[in-house]
Design goal:
99 residues; 1 helix; 5 strands; flat
Length: 99
């Protein structure tokens, strides 16, 4: 079984006219027991396989995080405004009268 991770990798490559920068953002299925460095090497090798000049580029940014976001409890809706009705009993949903 694998775990899905999201990654961002930004590389900078010197060129004859200055610098070229390229960013990749995607997901990767990572088997259990793999280290971050091994995952980094595998992803970088895969991304630069078709453009070998990028294999020697400088790393500007590397991020690897679980793709699944934590489950948050749904927030409760705001309580409706209440105001006393004719009998003095609070009535929900009424807009307060302006005095």
């Amino acid at each position: 079984m694998t775990t899905l991770y999201h990654f961002v990798l930004t590389l900078q490559l010197p060129t004859p006219t200055g610098m070229d920068v390229k960013t990749w953002s995607s997901t990767a299925n990572v088997p259990p027991g793999r280290g971050r460095y091994d995952v980094y090497k595998d992803i970088r090798a895969t991304l630069t396989a078709d453009a070998p000049e990028w294999a020697r580029a400088n790393v500007l940014h590397w991020s690897l995080e679980l793709d699944e976001l934590p489950h948050a409890a749904p927030s409760a809706p705001p309580a409706p405004t209440t105001e006393a009705g004719p009998s003095g009993t609070p009535v929900r949903g009424q807009v307060p009268r302006q005095r």
